């Protein structure tokens, strides 16, 4: 995507963590390194929703670590998985993504209200080879909207496992219609061959960033969805200041 680039697939990745729900809200506090805090303008907290086995965890691993996990890593142990990565949406403007994976809770639809409420948006993922996972997309969307209220969530609809074209059960056009009816973009991805994985997250990040810039999404105390980063002051050396002064035309 023009103007959008990831900042090193691995460099900002914090080690994957599996935490009990109670600890989840405290994850961000006090954990930023000074280096990390100085290089992003906003932090967006995003969630990944969809039926079990559609490939949510693999998508997150691919995006944050640049690899497709083997069977051991895709074991859906119940808990909360936390991922992190920076994306550069404009030259020099980086956004830190805090990415939350349901890690098995989706199996029992036991996702907590705060999981939705403290997010600004996410990916709604179905498996293009699994018709029922697509049929459940509206349920996931309704559930997310209900729990997030009064906050708005920004979603992108993701048809995953597009490397399995021969086993496709959901026509692209049908998915595009649903996305359009719900005011979302649609994108097809594969964590296996890395198709559109970057794009799915950067499209979502850009959509949210535009809404933040327009003031349609605002930061609020006690809400984790969007946080402001630290923008360092530019301190010029005396030589630089002098040369800047030379350029002044007034
Ligand atoms: N062919 C293919 N298989 C995938 C892809 N992504 C995930 N899988 C497989 O789908 C299964 C479920 O993946 P997982 O990420 O655990 O799904 P989750 O339950 O939604 O988190 C695993 O066997 C993965 O290897 C993909 O892009 N292509
Ligand atoms: Mg999973």
TrEMBL record:
Membrane topology reported for the UniProt record: Lipid-anchor
SUPFAM superfamilies tied to this protein: P-loop containing nucleoside triphosphate hydrolases
Annotated Gene Ontology cellular component terms: autolysosome membrane; cytoplasmic vesicle membrane; plasma membrane
Gene Ontology molecular function, alphabetical: GTP binding; GTPase activity
Superkingdom classification of source: Eukaryota
Keyword Lipoprotein in annotation: yes
Record's subcellular location: Autolysosome membrane; Cell membrane; Cytoplasmic vesicle membrane
InterPro entries attached to this UniProt entry: P-loop_NTPase, Rab39, Rab_GTPases_membrane_traffic, Small_GTP-bd, Small_GTPase
Entry coiled-coil feature ranges: none
Alphabetic keyword roster: Autophagy, Cell membrane, Cytoplasmic vesicle, GTP-binding, Lipoprotein, Membrane, Methylation, Nucleotide-binding, Prenylation
Keyword Lipoprotein among UniProt keywords: yes
GO biological process: autophagy; Rab protein signal transduction
UniProt family annotation: Belongs to the small GTPase superfamily. Rab family.
Descriptive protein name: Ras-related protein Rab-39A
Naturally occurring in which organism (per UniProt): Eublepharis macularius (Leopard gecko)
């Amino acid at each position: 995507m023009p103007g959008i680039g990831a900042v090193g697939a691995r460099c900002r990745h914090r080690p994957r963590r599996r935490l009990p729900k109670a600890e989840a809200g405290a994850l961000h506090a006090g954990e930023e390194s000074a280096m990390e805090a100085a290089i992003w303008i906003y932090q967006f907290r995003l969630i990944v929703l969809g039926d079990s086995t559609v490939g949510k965890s693999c998508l997150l691993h691919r995006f944050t670590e640049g690899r497709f996990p083997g069977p051991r890593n895709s074991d859906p142990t119940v808990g909360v998985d936390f991922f992190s990565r920076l994306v550069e949406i404009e030259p020099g403007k980086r956004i830190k993504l805090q990415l939350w994976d349901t890690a098995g809770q989706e199996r029992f639809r036991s996702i907590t209200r705060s999981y939705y409420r403290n997010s600004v948006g996410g990916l709604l993922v179905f498996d293009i080879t699994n018709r029922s996972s697509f049929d459940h997309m509206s349920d996931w969307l309704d559930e997310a909207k209900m729990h997030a209220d009064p906050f708005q969530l920004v979603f992108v609809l993701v048809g995953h496992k597009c490397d399995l074209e021969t086993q496709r059960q959901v026509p692209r056009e049908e998915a595009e219609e649903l996305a359009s009816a719900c005011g979302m973009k649609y994108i097809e991805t594969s964590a296996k061959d890395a198709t559109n994985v970057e794009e799915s997250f950067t499209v979502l990040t850009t959509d949210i960033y535009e809404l933040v810039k327009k003031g349609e999404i605002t930061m609020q105390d006690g809400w984790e969805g969007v946080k402001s980063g630290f923008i360092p002051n530019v301190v010029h050396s005396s030589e630089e200041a002098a040369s800047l002064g030379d350029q002044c035309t007034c």
